[in-house]
Amino acid sequence: MSHTKERNERVKNRLLAEYPADAYGIWQIKGEDDNADFAGPHIMPTLGFFEGTYADIVEYAVNLKSFWSYGAGGSISLVSVTRIEAASVRELKETTEALAALKEQEEILIGKLEKLGSQ
User: Fold this and answer.
1) CA dihedral for 24, 30, 31, 37, sign (positive or negative)
2) At 65, is the secondary structure helix, strand, or coil?
3) What confidence score (pLDDT) does residue 119 get?
4) Count of CB atoms within 10 A of residue 12's CB?
5) What's phi and psi for 10, nearest 5 deg?
6) Does the pLDDT of residue 28 top 60, yes or no?
7) How far apart are CA 57 and CA 80, in angstroms?
């Protein structure tokens, strides 16, 4: 077995221990940090977002050239997507405005208490 195949198998096994192989979702693949020492900036570039089973995503990732830098490989994480609907946006806006009005009212009431000599 070649060095590359051994490396791929080793990293595949490590990655497959992180999630069930049949887990389906949207996955973010990041390339390995190309700065192996402790100094300087550390960046794991996002290589993309992919949908499928974790086992397929792992197989795809380890075959991407940019997944590798020093041999430990990049990372794969499950992405949680939140659907935003118009009703949610409206409710968030109304709640934020109501909270701002309450804070304003609180300031007015605190001012009145201070004038009365009480806090």
Assistant:
1) negative
2) helix
3) 57
4) 16
5) -60, -50
6) yes
7) 16
Q: Which of 2, 50, 11, 13 is nearest to 32 (CA)?
A: 11
Residue 116 tokens, joined: 């009365």
Copy the structure tokens of residue 37: 């020492």
Residue ranges per domain, the chain?
A: 3-79, 84-119
Tokens of 32: 């390995």
Question: Could you tell me if 63 and 74 are in contact, meaning their C-beta atoms sit under 8 angstroms apart?
Answer: no
Distances (CA, A) of 52 to 19, 55, 84, 93, 110: 13, 8, 22, 35, 56
Three-class SS state of 46: strand
The encoded tokens of residue 61 equal 């990732």
SS3 state at 53: strand
Residue positions counted in the chain:
119
Q: What is the pTM of this model?
A: 0.67
